[in-house]
């Protein structure tokens, strides 16, 4: 579990595609992730009922959802 990654929310972009926003509380970097698209080495692989599955350099991280 990646407790230092906090889901902030999401936005709907042009064309209706969602982008999910996470904050890395260790570095204060904000990540905006579109499912299955890499950004700064991170990929949002899966959106589950109670968590997100993110991948960074081949390592999987679980981030608990706020909602």
Order of helices and strands: EEEEEE
Helix content: under 10%
Distance between the termini: 17 Å
Low-pLDDT ranges: none
Question: Going across the major beta sheet, what is the strand order?
Answer: 1-2-3
How many helices does DSSP assign?
0
Class inferred from helices and paired strands: mainly beta
Number of strands: 6
Strand fraction band? over 45%
Q: State mean pLDDT (0 to 100 scale).
A: 94
Largest beta-sheet details:
3 strands, antiparallel
Q: From the alpha carbons, calculate the radius of gyration and give it in angstroms.
A: 11 Å
What multimeric state do the chains show?
Answer: single chain
Please tell me what the overall shape is: globular
Short précis:
This protein is an all-beta fold and 67 residues long. A hairpin with a 2-residue loop joins β5 and β6. The two termini are 17 Å apart.
């Amino acid at each position: 579990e990646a407790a230092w990654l906090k889901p902030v929310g999401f936005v709907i972009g042009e064309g209706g595609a969602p982008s999910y926003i996470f904050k890395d509380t260790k570095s204060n970097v904000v990540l905006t992730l579109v499912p299955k698209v890499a950004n700064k080495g991170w990929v949002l692989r899966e959106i589950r009922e109670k968590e997100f599955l993110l991948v960074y350099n081949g390592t999987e991280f679980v981030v608990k959802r706020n909602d």
